[in-house]
Predict the 3D structure of the following.
Amino acid sequence: MSRINSAGPRPGDVLSHAEMCMVEGKMLQQGMNFGAGKGYSIVLMSQRKGAPYPDRLAADGTALLYVGHDAYGHPHKGTVDQPLATLFGTLTQNGLFFQAAESYRQSGIPHLVRVYEKIRAGVWVFNGLFELTDASMESDGKRRVCVFELRITSRSFDDATLPTQPQPSRLIPSEVKVKVFRRDHGKCRRCGATTDLHFDHILPYSKGGSSTNPDNIQLLCQRHNLEKRDRIE
Ligand SMILES: [Zn+2]
């Protein structure tokens, strides 16, 4: 935990579920957690095998398209539209994120979202800080689902309540992270450490390195990642 300083996790950091909850100061179980952080929401992504309509990356690699949640406890939840409100008229998590996207359209001030992604059992990656820039309902063939556009933020924040780190300019796709973690056996490539790991671009994106080719991504522990970064900068 020592690596996660007051500025919060860095995009690409690998965390256990317990570490993620410690970083955010709360138990995280649901995928969508509107307003759960200080000045931001928290979204958990995971590889849902066989999902007809999975979360995906926008073609340019700068945004995530996150699918909303099904009606809780509904017996045929895969066939009914994803709800924006409950039977009692209160907004669901879908509804709250929808409202925030609507407010962005009017005010130009985006709602901020931290995204964590589960790449295998017990292994989570911090994907970074995003702006909620759009929300829509789309058909998945059987029913209508909510799709939220989360764009990597390029703003810098002065707000002390919102610790943040430099954001990546391009996201590493889920399947690339899964492949790299497996190939590197969940260990730092330099020293074999299995804790404080980070997904590292061998050639940085800013220098023309790919985010989508597993050959350009490796697992490094924090020490070796920072050593390397200091050499490059
Ligand atoms: Zn190492």
